[in-house]
Amino acid sequence: MAYIDCKLKSQILQTTVTVKLYFPTDLPAEVGNQIKGCLTLLHGYTNCAEDWFQMTSAARYAADNGLMLIVPDCGNSFYQNMMYGGAYRTFLVDEMPVLLHNIFRFIPMQRDRNFIAGLSMGGYGALYLGMSRPDIWGGCASFSGAVDLSLMLRDPNVPGLREVFAPIFGDSLALPKASNLHYVAQKAAELPPQRQPKILLTNGLQDFEPYHIVEQNDSLHATLHKLNLAYYRRIQWDGVHEWNFWDRSLVYAIDYFLGNGYAAKKMNDWRSSAVIHQ
């Protein structure tokens, strides 16, 4: 396996950006020697790319399935072109792939082998990017995502509301139409089925305050269900806003993207009984 810690000089952001890469170069024999796809993972608010490797088994799950990982640091941007900050959407969509190709001769995967997922803020980012650019990503997944920002923006009791969102959307805290996932989903639903992305939502049933994660996911689910998208799935189970939940969500996402029964295999692994000898 190969872990590469990149420091990319971004002209768009006018700063150096950390992007972590994982290449499963010693793939299991049953997987084969060819990389089968690419998964971009987006971190949550106040988090960073390193958290995906320290707090989950992302690399092991990727190796099991022949996936390379791209994990960028994007600050507290909500993956937007910020009003008072960096153009992170443009960096991720346009600049980062070019920089990676120039350095590693890395050729981006075709959309049906290119996926994006994230947790919390990154869950929003994964759907925002994946649904608006299904020509790039064939699947997108949100784990405990802040997927209906309008619910947060109109609640003055959300901690740090202005500090979080004023740099992103401006002092009015007005959510642009193009950043509203209900609108983005509607545009995706207008595409022919073969051009629509796979979409996955997961959230814990006890993930409420202070960010209304259950309520946000219920709201977006109602829209996605009504739009009758070609490839949409929602999975819920007991859980809150924490890494055990996101680790398991990653297994479900890989299984959904690849359609290879990986989730059932991992569930059997986790349920395997152990004999303890005293």
From TrEMBL:
One of its GO terms (molecular function) is hydrolase activity. The keyword Hydrolase applies. InterPro entries: AB_hydrolase_fold, Esterase-like, Mycobacterial_A85_antigen. SUPFAM superfamilies: alpha/beta-Hydrolases. Pfam families: Esterase. The keyword rRNA processing does not apply. Keywords: Hydrolase. PANTHER family: DIACYLGLYCEROL ACYLTRANSFERASE_MYCOLYLTRANSFERASE AG85A (PTHR48098:SF1), ENTEROCHELIN ESTERASE-RELATED (PTHR48098). This is Alpha/beta hydrolase-fold protein. It comes from Ruthenibacterium intestinale.
